[in-house]
Amino acid sequence: MSRRAAPDARAAKQAAGRPPDALVFLVIVAGVWITWQILRNALVLTVPPSLALRLGPDSPTALTRMAETELAAGRIDAAQRLAQRALTRKPFNVAALRVAGLAAAREGDLEAANQMLTLAGNWSLRDDPAQSWLVKHRLEQGRSASALAHADTLMRRRTDLRPMYFDLMINLALRNDVEAQAALVALLRREPPWRIDFFIHALERPEGLPVAVAALAALKDGQGRATDEEKARVYGTLIAQGRITTLRAVMAHVEPRPQPILTNGDFSDGVGAPPFGWSLPAGAGVLAEVANDPEGGGLALHALVSETTERTVAEQLVLLTPGRWRLSGRFRVDQGDLTGRVAWVLACAAGGQVLASAPVSAAARGDWTPFSALIETPPDACGAQQLRLVSRDQDRRSPVEIWMDDVTLTRVR
Question: Which neighbouring-strand residues pair with 327?
Fold first, then answer.
């Protein structure tokens, strides 16, 4: 073989291994087309709707966006045509179906609108306009339960809509709409994320209080029963408004067993659940806690007092009726002189009027000592009181360390 023939052979071999020019051209064209489609789809989502429609006249997204624009501008026929074109190209287009439904509603065809918007709402629980229309339309149909179900769908995601729908729930319940009342309780039993917000909202409005009370009573047992926080908010509101008779009736219905006059007097449940558990106010010169008794007696109230001015060590809300009561318990002094330093005080929860006071004095240090005192509430006394353990005013700073346990209140016949 000549030297000249060798390069020709190599060139022929290289040409045989290279794809045809036409195929290369097709690959380039396909790449450009795919890139344009990706870019166009991105632009259709971001540019103004009219420009998006020019970029993609057959794009379901562009058609839907333009249909929404036309509907917002009041051009119902154009919105309807564009929505139908979008649905032809993409039948499960929720936004287009919603536009078609809203357009039908504006034209007065409520039956068609109801069908389309119900379908859109079922396809997507996140389609707010469809869900909102369904709430309104179901109310107009007198279907309160269905309306509240759609409202629930919206409130689970849209916290800004909750106040409006809470007001709707309250108004429906106050109209003695039995279907709405049952639907509200059923929704609350599912423990939706807006449940505690509903109680808070209702209790902030005079007209909402009876609805909150009724809801709490309906949730006394079973699935989704009332929580301690919900009870505390309702009870606290009734106490703040002086509705003690109502409070007693609600508690008698809601609580699984009769409540003791004094809650958690042995401190076995820590401070207990509000509003009837113990409160340990923080303050200068007073340290109070529920702690284990070093002598192995279980949990008890432990306090270290060094302040010279009067301070509340512990307090609890009680509901004493007029008459004579016996306050009893036991205490132990680990440090200081208790004489004249500590006393139990019963005062009105509203206004702070002192009804009775019972000093605590120690006979010996380091031993558990029982105490007992008679307390009398006058006939015209307030319906709710605060029982407080307080440290009295002193001329000089003298630390006292005290333990308190097994505190009880019983009526004296």
Answer: 373, 409
* Amino acid letter for position 113: A
Q: What's at 166, amino acid-wise?
A: F
Query: Can you spell out the DSSP letters for 334-399?
Result: EES--TTTEEEEEEETTT--EEEEEEE--SSSSS-EEEEEEEEE-TT--SSEEEEEEEPP-SS---
Phi and psi for 372 in degrees, rounded to 5?
A: -155, 140
Helix (H, G, I), strand (E, B) or coil at 91: coil
Beta-carbon-side half-sphere exposure of residue 80 (alpha carbons within 13 Å): 15
Is residue 138 within 8 A of residue 144, CB to CB? The reply is yes
The confidence score (pLDDT) of residue 35 equals 58
User: What whole-number distance in Å separates Cα of residue 102 and Cα of residue 100?
Assistant: 6
Sign of the CA dihedral running 220, 226, 229, 234:
negative
| CA distances (Å), origin 183, targets 277, 396, 404 | 33, 63, 48
What is the rounded CA–CA span in Å between residue 320 and residue 376? 10
DSSP H stretches of helix in 47-161: 49-55, 60-72, 76-89, 94-106, 110-123, 128-140, 144-155
Q: Are 370 and 362 contacting, i.e. CB atoms less than 8 angstroms apart?
A: no
Nearest Cα residue to 381 out of 237, 233, 242: 242
Cα(322)–Cα(386) distance, rounded to whole angstroms?
A: 15
- Around Cβ 317, how many Cβ atoms within 10 Å? 20
Tell me the pLDDT tens digit for each residue of 16-74.
555 666 766 676 666 655 655 555 555 455 567 776 666 667 787 878 888 888 888 99
